[in-house]
Specification:
about 170 residues, Jelly Rolls, seven-stranded mixed beta sheet, three-stranded antiparallel beta sheet, 3 helices
Length: about 170
């Protein structure tokens, strides 16, 4: 493990916190993320904020194209994505699950999701690494809102494949 990181043992996916604030996020940490992914074939995040209770969250996240991230919304906060490596589509949905907008993001692009709008992120490359920032603290129960169509979609591999193919073709 990298000397400046401590593992978050309570997280659903592999997550790490910087051991202290004021550590620059540099190429060594990007290399750690990439090497972790190659070794474990898992998404990973490094949190630059000190704890889940922090009022502002900054995370460097690696997500894989093969995975699906359920559409969700946040009632009181937006999220900002800044692409570091790879490409990603940020997809905005209507309340009923219709695609409203697809924003293709590549290295150095920045996008902010609107508050109270269903959205998902879909890596367009084998993996994408991006910086996400949003208001904290993280609330396990009411942080992300899912509704019937997004929950149903999450459990339907055929629908997921259809949606991903549609987004891949529209994001070209």
């Amino acid at each position: 493990m990298h000397q400046n990181l401590k593992k978050d043992r309570k997280a659903k996916t592999p997550s790490f916190f910087l051991k202290r604030e004021g550590i620059p996020f540099n190429q060594k940490l990007i290399n750690f993320i990439i090497n972790y992914y190659k070794k474990n074939n898992e998404d990973i995040r490094i949190c630059m904020h000190p704890s889940i209770k922090a009022k502002h969250h900054d995370m460097i996240i690696l997500q894989q194209r093969k995975n699906f991230y359920a559409p969700h919304k946040h009632l009181r906060k937006g999220e900002t994505y800044h692409i570091i490596k790879g490409a990603m589509a940020c997809v905005l949905f209507s309340e009923k699950g219709k695609i409203k907008k697809i924003c293709k993001l590549k290295k150095n692009n920045i996008f902010r999701t609107p508050i109270n709008i269903f959205h998902t992120m879909l890596p367009l490359t084998k993996y994408v690494i991006y910086h996400e920032c949003k208001v904290g603290p993280f609330l396990k129960i009411n942080d992300s809102i899912f509704n019937k169509w997004s929950k149903k979609l999450t459990n339907d591999q055929i629908q997921i494949k259809t949606l991903k193919n549609k987004i891949f073709s529209l994001a070209k």
